[in-house]
Write a structure and sequence with these properties.
Blueprint: H1 2-34, H2 37-63, H3 77-107, H4 116-141, H5 144-170, H6 177-204, H7 211-222, E1 229-238, E2 241-250, H8 256-273, E3 277-286, H9 289-299
Parallel strand pairs: 2-3
Antiparallel strand pairs: 1-2
C-alpha cells in the first residue's frame, strides 16, 4: 500500500514541477514584454511553486525508504521537513518581490500591454487544474506536503483574478494598480508560507492530528473482547502517518497468553481501521483495585 501511495505522490509532485515551470516561463516572458510587474511577480511565485514541488518530490523519495536501525519508525518525517523548507523559501521570495513592487511604486508605475490578459487566462486555467488535481491526490494519500502545494495553487487562482482586474484597470489609466497588486501578491505568498511552515512544524513536533482520532482509537479498542478500559492514548505524527501507544486494562486473572492475544487484537483493529496509523503499541494492565481507584474513579 505504501509503495502505491508514494508512486501516486511522486507523480503528483512531478505534474506540479512540469506545470509550474511551464506557467512560470510563460508569465515571465509575458510580464517582461507587456511591462506588468504583477505578472512578473506571479511568474516568480510559480517558480517558487516549482521549487516547492521539487522539494515535495524529494521528500516523497526519502519517505519511502524502509525503517532501519537508526530510523525504527521509518522516514515519514521527510515530507514534513520538505514542506518546512518550502515555506522558508517562500518567505525569502516574498521579501524580494515586495522590495521590487515597492520600488516600482516609488519610481512611478508604467502602462501595461493589453496582450498580458492572454497570459493571465492561460495561467488561471493551468493553476485551477493543478489545484484540483493536487488536492485530490493529497486527500487520497494523506500527504501534508501535497496538501500545502494544493492550497498554494488555489491561492494562485485568486491571484490571477486580481492581476486580470489590475490589467483592465491599467487600460483605463490606473497604472498604479499593477504594482499595488504585485505587492498584494507578496503578502499572499508570505501568508501561505507562514501557514505551511507552522503546519509542518506542528507535524514535526508530533502534535496530535485531531481529538476525533483519539476518540476513535479509544472506541475501537474498547470494542475488542476482553478490554475493560482504555487510557493514556498517545498519538505521534510522522509526516502523513501516525504512530500510537495506549494502555488497555483486562481482567486481572486473565492468563498472560490470553492478555497478549487481546493486545494483538487491539493493535490490529486500530491499524486496519485507521489508515493514517502505521503502528500501535499496546500496553496491557490488570484491571485490579489500583486501576479501579485511579482510572475509573478519575473518569467519574
Amino acid at each position: 500500500m505504501d509503495a502505491g501511495r508514494f508512486r501516486t505522490g511522486e507523480r503528483a509532485a512531478l505534474v506540479g514541477i512540469l506545470g509550474n515551470s511551464t506557467l512560470a516561463a510563460m508569465k515571465l516572458v509575458a510580464g517582461v514584454l507587456t511591462g506588468s510587474a504583477a505578472l512578473v511577480a506571479d511568474a516568480l511565485d510559480s517558480f517558487s511553486d516549482t521549487l516547492s514541488s521539487l522539494i515535495t518530490w524529494l521528500g516523497m523519495r526519502i519517505s519511502q525508504k524502509p525503517a532501519d536501525d537508526t530510523h525504527p519508525y521509518g522516514h515519514y518525517d521527510a515530507e514534513a521537513i520538505a514542506g518546512l523548507i518550502g515555506s522558508i523559501i517562500l518567505v525569502l521570495l516574498a521579501y524580494e518581490l515586495a522590495s521590487q513592487a515597492a520600488a516600482r511604486i516609488i519610481q512611478g508605475a508604467r502602462p501595461v500591454e493589453v496582450s498580458a490578459i492572454l497570459a493571465v487566462f492561460l495561467n488561471l486555467a493551468g493553476k485551477a487544474y493543478l489545484a484540483w488535481y493536487t488536492r485530490r491526490v493529497a486527500e487520497r494519500i494523506k500527504s501534508p506536503a501535497l496538501a500545502a502545494n494544493a492550497a498554494n495553487y488555489r491561492g494562485d487562482v485568486y491571484t490571477s483574478v486580481a492581476i486580470l482586474i489590475g490589467i483592465l484597470a491599467n487600460t483605463q489609466g490606473l497604472y498604479i494598480l499593477d504594482p499595488l497588486i504585485a505587492l498584494g501578491i507578496t503578502l499572499l505568498i508570505f501568508k501561505t508560507a507562514v501557514e505551511i511552515g507552522w503546519k509542518n512544524i506542528l507535524n514535526l513536533m508530533g502534535t496530535v492530528p485531531s481529538p476525533e482520532m483519539v476518540r476513535r482509537i479509544e472506541a475501537l479498542s474498547k470494542d475488542v473482547d476482553g478490554v475493560i478500559d482504555v487510557h493514556r492514548v498517545r498519538v505521534h505524527a510522522m509526516g502523513a502517518y501516525n504512530k500510537v501507544d495506549l494502555h488497555v486494562c483486562v481482567d486481572e486473572n486473565l492468563p498472560l497468553k490470553e492478555a497478549h492475544r487481546v493486545a494483538h487484537k487491539v493493535q490490529t483493529r486500530i491499524v486496519e481501521n485507521i489508515p493514517e496509523i502505521t503502528s500501535a503499541l499496546v500496553h496491557v494492565e490488570p484491571y485490579d483495585e489500583h486501576h479501579r481507584e485511579v482510572h475509573f474513579n478519575n473518569k467519574k
